[in-house]
Amino acid sequence: MTERIFYAAISSDGYLAGPNGDMSWAEKYLSSGEDYGYFNLVSTSSAILLGRATFDFEIESGVQGPRPLPTYVLTHIPELYENVVQENIYFTGGEIERVVELIEENHPGRLFVMGGADVVRQLLDAGLIDTMRLFVCPEELGDGVLAFESDSIYDNFKLLEEKQYASGIIEEVYQLITT
């Protein structure tokens, strides 16, 4: 069985990004020198799934070079990326259940879900997130891209662990409640 982990920084009022997808608010936390378990998660995962907007943000932020894991970018318009030739990057689309099935067939093990909000909503609606590692930043945005459409999503998860970092971030680890 594959474990699917959603890993993300969110503002204290529940936003993944500010207006127009702005992520500058989170950069000060990323530059703190703290790893937040990222290296361990990457080293114990088989593949990464992220959305087109997250991929575009990475490219605009200068993230280049070889990917440490097979990285699947969910997009409705893969033809936009015909000229992107990087090892370990796959552009895919379609029903989220089929996309996850394809990834798991090719890369059994842990699937690291980096976002964005649309990808996560699709996965949550399909019951395809097992664990959420949320890094709640002491920052209120008031507007932007909400991580979840409703706080009722937490009703399906049990809080397993909380950890406070020197930066003020609180890591919350949630596990899907299974019946």
Tags for this model:
two-stranded antiparallel ribbon; Dihydrofolate Reductase, subunit A; alpha/beta; eight-stranded mixed sheet; globular; 10 strands; about 180 residues
The CATH superfamily bears the name Dihydrofolate Reductase, subunit A
The fraction of residues in strands falls at: 25-35%
Which spans of ≥5 residues are poorly predicted at pLDDT below 50?
none
Radius of gyration: 16 Å
Helices and strands, in order, run as EEHHEHEEHEHEEEE
**What would CATH call the class?**
Alpha Beta
- Secondary-structure content class: alpha/beta
Total of domains: 1
The shape, in one word, is globular
Mean pLDDT: 89
* Count of strand segments: 10
Mind telling me which CATH architecture this is? 3-Layer(aba) Sandwich
Structural topology:
Layout: E1 4-11, E2 15-17, H1 24-30, H2 38-43, E3 47-51, H3 52-60, E4 71-74, E5 89-92, H4 96-106, E6 111-115, H5 117-125, E7 131-137, E8 145-146, E9 157-164, E10 170-176
Parallel strand pairs: 1-6, 1-7, 3-4, 3-6, 4-5
Antiparallel strand pairs: 2-8, 7-10, 9-10
Description:
The two termini are 17 Å apart. This protein has an eight-stranded mixed beta sheet with strand order 5-4-3-6-1-7-10-9. It has a two-stranded antiparallel sheet with strand order 2-8. The protein is globular and about 40 Å long. By secondary structure, it is of the alpha/beta class. 23% of the residues lie in helices and 30% in strands. The chain is built from five helices and ten strands; from the N terminus they run ββααβαββαβαββββ. The mean pLDDT is 89. The chain has one domain: Dihydrofolate Reductase, subunit A (3-Layer(aba) Sandwich). A hairpin with a 5-residue loop joins strand 9 and strand 10.
